[in-house]
Every structure is written in structure tokens, then in C-alpha cells.
Write a structure and sequence with these properties.
- The protein has 200 residues and is of the alpha/beta class.
- The protein has a single domain, classed as Rossmann fold (3-Layer(aba) Sandwich), CATH 3.40.50.300.
- Helices cover 46% and strands 20% of the residues.
- The strands form two sheets. Strands 2-7-1-8-9 form a five-stranded parallel sheet, with helices on both faces. The chain has a four-stranded mixed sheet with strand order 4-3-6-5.
- Helix 1 packs across helix 7.
- The chain binds adenosine-5'-diphosphate.
- The site of adenosine-5'-diphosphate has 15 residues, from helix 1, helix 5 and helix 7.
Length: 200
């Protein structure tokens, strides 16, 4: 099963999903690829898979990305092969992608469950962006402006959670994953196995 988590920058989606995959068996997070150089203490393969712009463009041309986008001049993408590899291995995968990326995946009719994370309020979002101290004032303003446009996209998702208290929010997201795994359509093969044991 593929889960897509979107939220305006600074809402806490990365923090949430990192915790979610730690507390949920058989759930993996797919790391995005990017052409931008690592910032601060970012680590290759942990925060992103960092590649050169030329390499990224080569991969995009070869159709290796499920979706990719140019964000303020830097390229970001989700590797289709990596996601497939996890899914084939029987794990569920979470993609942390923005509203535009989620739309691109939806347009390809890739089956998935969408979760939109909202901050408790605009004011709290602003505090979190400042608290993270990753961006300069210009970047924070730009992110807040984008957030104003992005929040109304929550209607496009299957689930909405509000990231008020971190632990509670992780619990809600885990609840969604577990409930999705128990849906009739997904449980039918396993239920059939159990029913098989009832035959004389
Ligand atoms: P995103 O991935 O959505 O851009 P981050 O995961 O980087 O957001 O989180 C933004 C900031 O908010 C980080 O400093 C993070 O520690 C903080 N944060 C995340 N969730 C919460 C929460 N529930 N309460 C308080 N702070 C939070």
C-alpha cells in the first residue's frame, strides 16, 4: 500500500513520518532525490538522496521518477523503482510529497491513500518555521505564502490530521495505516486462508 503525506512546509510532516515509520511495522519512508546540495547537517540517504543536476535530469528523462518537480530552481523527485522495490517486498510505503507532487501521482492513477496534515493554525505554522531556523526571513515569507494556497487542497485527500501534539498526531496516523490494512478488500485473501481451515 502506498501512503502519501502532504502538508505545508513547516507543519511537521517529516518529523511525523519519521516517527510513524519507527512505531509501525512494515512501513517504510521513501527518500526523495534532489539536485540541490546538502544543507547544514543533512546526510545523503537520510535526509535526501543527493545527486548532481545532470544525473537528476538523466534519471527524469529515463522515466525513473514517479513524480518530480522544480522547486525554486532545485529538482526534487520520488524514485519509482525504489518505491516498487519496497512494495514488492511486502512493505507499505509512505511518500512525503507536496500538493503538486500528490496531484501528479493521482493523475497517473497510482492507487494510494492520501493523508493531509494541517498545522493547528497559521500562527503556529509561522512559529514552527521560525523555530526550525532553517530558512531566512525571505524563505519563511515565501513558505507562508505557499501555505496559504496549499491548505485548501486538504479536500483532495482521504484523511486529514491536525498536528497539534506530536505524539497524538503520530497515533492518529498509525491508526489510519492500521485501519487501511484491515479493509475488507485487503483482508480477503487472508480471510480466505482462515476460512480454508474451516473446511472439512
Ligand atoms: P515539514 O516537514 O512539514 O516541513 P518539519 O518536520 O521540518 O516540517 O517540522 C517543522 C518544525 O516544527 C520542526 O522544528 C519540528 O521539530 C516542529 N514540530 C513538528 N511537529 C510539531 C508539533 N506537533 N508540535 C511542535 N512542534 C512541532
Amino acid at each position: 500500500m502506498l501512503f502519501i503525506v502532504s502538508a505545508p512546509s513547516g507543519t511537521g510532516k517529516t518529523t511525523l513520518v519519521e516517527r510513524l515509520v519507527k512505531v509501525t511495522d512494515h512501513l517504510r519512508m521513501s527518500r526523495s532525490y534532489t539536485s540541490r546540495p546538502p544543507r547544514g547537517d543533512e546526510v545523503h540517504g537520510v535526509d535526501y538522496n543527493f545527486v548532481s543536476r545532470a544525473r537528476f535530469e538523466q534519471m527524469a528523462a529515463a522515466g525513473e521518477f514517479l513524480e518530480w518537480a522544480d522547486v525554486f530552481g532545485n529538482l526534487y523527485g520520488t524514485h519509482a523503482g525504489e518505491t516498487d522495490k519496497y512494495l514488492q517486498g511486502g512493505d507499505d510505503v509512505v511518500l512525503v510529497i507536496d500538493v503538486q507532487g500528490a496531484r501528479k501521482v493521482r493523475a497517473q492513477n497510482v492507487p494510494h491513500v492520501g493523508i493531509f496534515v494541517l498545522p493547528p493554525s497559521f500562527q503556529v505554522l509561522e512559529q514552527r518555521l521560525r523555530g526550525r531556523s532553517k530558512d531566512n526571513e525571505d524563505a519563511i515569507r515565501r513558505r507562508l505564502q505557499v501555505a496559504r494556497e496549499e491548505v485548501s487542497a486538504f479536500e483532495e485527500y482521504n484523511y486529514v490530521v491536525i498536528n497539534d501534539a506530536l505524539d497524538l498526531c503520530v497515533e492518529r496516523m498509525k491508526g489510519i495505516v492500521l485501519a487501511e490494512r484491515s479493509k475488507l478488500a485487503r483482508m480477503r485473501p487472508k480471510a480466505a486462508q482462515v476460512l480454508g481451515t474451516f473446511e472439512l
